[in-house]
Write a structure and sequence with these properties.
Elements: H1 3-18, H2 27-38, H3 41-47, E1 49-52, H4 70-75, E2 81-83, H5 88-101, E3 109-112, H6 125-129, H7 134-150, E4 155-156, H8 180-195, E5 208-212, H9 231-238, H10 240-247, E6 253-256, E7 260-261, E8 264-265, H11 270-280, E9 286-288, H12 296-300, H13 306-316, E10 321-322, H14 326-336, H15 342-359, H16 371-377, H17 381-394, E11 396-400, E12 414-417, H18 443-449, E13 454-457, E14 463-464, E15 474-475, H19 483-491, E16 495-501, H20 522-532, E17 536-541, H21 549-554, E18 557-560, H22 568-576, E19 641-652, E20 655-664, E21 670-680, E22 691-700, E23 705-713, H23 714-717, E24 719-720, E25 726-727, E26 732-738, E27 745-750
Helix pairs in contact: 2-15, 3-14, 3-15, 7-8, 7-16, 7-17, 8-10, 13-14, 17-22, 18-22, 19-20
This protein binds alpha-D-glucopyranose (GLC).
């Protein structure tokens, strides 16, 4: 070997020797590995175990629950997390048990359902979705995180990103509606709001994409029921919001769903958890089960006992067990017997520890326990202002004949009718959790604060009996005694504002309804009032689309006000009197009746779409229109907007630029959500007749014009086939740009 070669080899050896040892990907992984190496198997399993505290029961507590052992288990390092413990002093107490008493002092992570605000409540998530305002939605989540962390919490079980087309399902109130593109954008905004820019900051929370997956497709809209959908729907409709939460917002945790997927409970679905989530998507956070979803595999008929639950769930990729007690009871034995490899436990525990390190809990387990911050942040005036802004933006104007709205500010003799009109609790919606009862501004208070000359009559009670969570509501179907007084008031009034809809607990988990009409005696009240005064503005207060056909046919004005949270009454008053020009658009289709469900905008064409000469041979009903009462993306304004000059330019094999001119032809400034839909006309699997692939919410001054631009790329134009392969196929596409999913300027392009 020549001298020069020897010298080269020598130099190379020096260089290699100076390389840092193969460190884990980052310091946190090093810390995780170091800690893991010190842990016993029992301590590792403890990190995979979560117990509920005693504040809020959000599921069926198991009869033989380990409530009696909870504190002992925490002190022995057998509890990695608590849920439903809140408040600085309580969190500190629990954390001290873990940190001071257990051998390694591993801090617990405290999870809670921070769904739409914490103490200051924002509108229910479905209402926020109606704003189509991603910045406002992110800010809403940010504020929720600031308040929740001020109460000691560091993990929220949100956002719920389940797509659903079935308003019978009570949990539609908790998501972003029926559309995957909108739902993905909103899910990302919420995760970014919760997690902020720095997860180790004292006012940021780990977020949780839930419920993985397809929970929104429960049959019959009955909660916890069977789900049976094709894989093309799974890949194209259900999974994208979860994938976006990882890829565009780095969500740190996932939660399983209660339902089966292809016959296997999600909690033990290798396909979902290992193949897709941790495999294809490379998710490096951790997965928690839903409340007892592990133990429920026995009822599903997938596990014979709790030991097999633990084996199946752990091996499939569930990393933490909420309220099944399966891991804490059986995982050590399962590892010792070889049914679960210790490497499976190590992977799960590493994921949990990684998030705890990222949150800074090892640096200071009590960083979230600051009494001063708790006092300062809860109900902060800035939070109340943001909640009002979000509420106004969430309101959808459904009808406004003869410009009855906005009411003039010196409008005299307004009759305000309906039990919900002075209800300070229902506007808080379900999943208010830490929110305090009766803290909403009612519509009556909002109108009075506005200085309106308003007289109130309840009409009919909406519910009777106790309403405390989690009991069934008793709807009033007999006591009509208040109708007479309401009619009398309406008769002598110039305009009637009727606030009708659902009680705050008529929607949410375990709140499925088989009838979507106005509950109880409200419709009768409405029609009795209408007989004496047709000048009615209906303000809907509800947690899901309702079948308000009669109102749509007969009333001059309808506002969809959902459940708008703490500032509800103020927001509604500002819209009624025109201080805010409503800009919301429906995130979910309104059916004509329950039999119409599922009805959604992005349906397939079928082989017999309605066409000339088809006589009766097409997908229709003999006895009613198949068109929705109100379509996805629909919403009016006090302005009017004119669309013109649609331009479509193919600027590359995978790039299309679209532009349109929108003019505010009204006499007040207003915001318009300009929506872009595509239709891939021929593809290797059939594609929906239209799909939302872009939207821009723009403020346009009265009389002004705005040019709105969109870019379509492979990401928007592609789709998944039934095996999860993402395809982008050249061909002909229709494009529509407009103010909702049915009306707009049309064009086409070819790639
Ligand atoms: C509930 C819900 C889930 C929630 C969890 C903890 O059953 O399904 O969304 O986060 O339990 O409260």
């Amino acid at each position: 070997m020549t001298r020069s070669v020897l010298f080269g080899v020598f130099v190379l050896m020096i260089l290699v020797a100076c390389q840092p040892s193969q460190k884990p990907t980052n310091d946190i992984d090093q810390k995780v590995n170091d800690l893991l190496s010190k842990m016993t198997l029992e301590e590792k399993v403890g990190q995979m175990n979560q117990y509920t505290g005693f504040y809020d029961i959000t599921g069926p507590a198991p009869a033989d629950g380990d409530a009696k052992n909870k504190y002992d288990h925490i002190k022995s390092g057998l509890v990695g997390s608590m849920l439903n413990v809140r408040g600085v002093s309580e969190v500190r107490k629990m954390q001290q048990l873990a940190v001071d008493s257990s051998r390694l002092g591993i801090p617990m992570i405290f999870g809670f359902d921070v769904i739409h605000g914490h103490k200051t409540l924002s509108p229910i998530p479905l209402a926020e979705a109606a704003s189509w305002d991603l910045e406002a939605i992110e800010k809403s989540a940010r504020i929720a995180a600031v308040e929740a962390t001020a109460e000691g919490l560091n993990w929220t079980f949100a956002p719920m990103v389940d797509i659903s087309r079935d308003p019978r399902w009570g949990r539609v109130m908790e998501g972003a509606g029926e559309d995957t593109y909108l739902g993905s954008k909103i899910g990302v905004a919420r995760v970014r709001g919760f997690q902020g820019d720095d997860l180790s900051a004292v006012n940021t929370l780990a977020a949780c994409a839930k419920h993985f997956a397809a929970y929104g497709f429960v049959e019959g809209g009955r909660d916890y029921n069977t789900v049976d959908i094709g894989t093309a729907t799974l890949y194209n409709v259900v999974l994208p919001p979860f994938k976006a939460a990882i890829e565009e917002a780095n969500v740190r945790t996932f939660m399983n769903s209660f339902n089966i997927i292809n016959g296997i409970p999600s909690t033990a679905s290798n396909f979902l958890l290992r193949d897709i989530l941790k495999g294809e998507w490379g998710f490096d956070g951790f997965v928690i089960s839903d409340w007892s979803s592990g133990a429920e595999m026995i009822a599903h008929g997938y596990a014979k006992d709790l030991e097999q639950v633990a084996e199946l769930a752990a091996n499939a990729g569930s990393d933490m067990d909420m309220e099944s007690y399966s891991f804490v009871k059986h995982l050590v034995n399962l590892v010792n017997s070889g049914k679960v490899k210790e490497s499976v436990v190590d992977d799960a525990v590493s994921r949990v520890l990684r998030v705890k390190f990222e949150l800074g809990l090892f640096d200071d387990p009590y960083k979230y326990c600051d009494e001063e911050r708790e006092k300062e942040m809860i109900y902060h005036p800035d939070h109340m202002a943001a909640a009002l802004d979000m509420a106004k933006k969430s309101i959808v104007l459904l009808k406004n004949e003869n410009a009855l709205l906005p009411l003039s500010k010196n409008q005299k003799k307004i009759a305000l009718i309906g039990d919900l009109a002075d209800d300070k609790d229902s506007p808080l919606g379900n999943w208010r959790m830490a929110g305090e009862s009766n803290t909403a501004v009612s519509v009556l208070e909002g109108l009075q604060e506005f200085g309106a000359d308003v007289s109130f009559a309840e009409g009919v009670k909406l519910v009777t009996g106790p309403t405390a969570f989690p009991i069934e509501l008793e709807v009033n179907t007999t006591d009509k005694s208040g109708i007479k007084e309401a009619v009398k008031l309406a008769k002598k009034s110039d305009v009637v504002v009727m606030v009708l809809g659902e009680h705050g607990l008529h929607s949410g988990e375990a709140r499925s309804r088989s009838d979507l009409n106005l509950p109880g005696l409200q419709q009768e009240l409405l029609e009795e009032v209408y007989k004496v005064n047709q000048n009615i503005v209906l303000v809907l207060m509800n947690g899901r689309p309702l079948t308000i056909n009669w109102a749509d046919e007969n009333l001059p004005a309808i506002i969809e006000a959902w459940q708008l949270g703490t500032q509800s009454g103020k927001a509604i008053a500002q819209v009624l009197f025109g201080d805010y020009n409503p800009s919301g658009k429906l995130p979910m289709t309104f059916p004509r009746n329950v039999a119409h469900i599922p009805v959604y905008y992005n349906q397939f064409n079928s082989g017999r779409p309605a066409r000339e000469g088809s006589a009766i041979f097409w997908p229709h009903y003999m006895d009613q229109s198949h068109e929705p009462l109100y379509p996805f993306g629909y919403g009016l304004s006090y302005s009017t907007f004119d669309y013109s000059n649609l331009k479509v330019n193919v600027t590359g094999p995978e790039n299309v630029e679209v532009s349109v001119t929108v003019q505010n032809t009204g006499d007040v400034d207003g915001e318009e959500v300009v929506q872009l839909y595509i239709h891939d006309k021929v593809a290797s699997i059939v594609r929906p007749v239209k799909e939302l692939k872009g939207f821009n919410k723009v403020m346009i001054k009265a009389g002004d014009k705005a040019e709105v631009n969109f870019t379509l790329t492979k990401k928007e134009l592609g789709f998944y086939n039934g095996t999860g392969e993402f395809l982008f196929e050249p061909g002909e596409f229709d494009v529509m740009v407009g103010s909702n999913s049915t009306d707009g300027l049309k064009s086409s392009f070819e790639l």
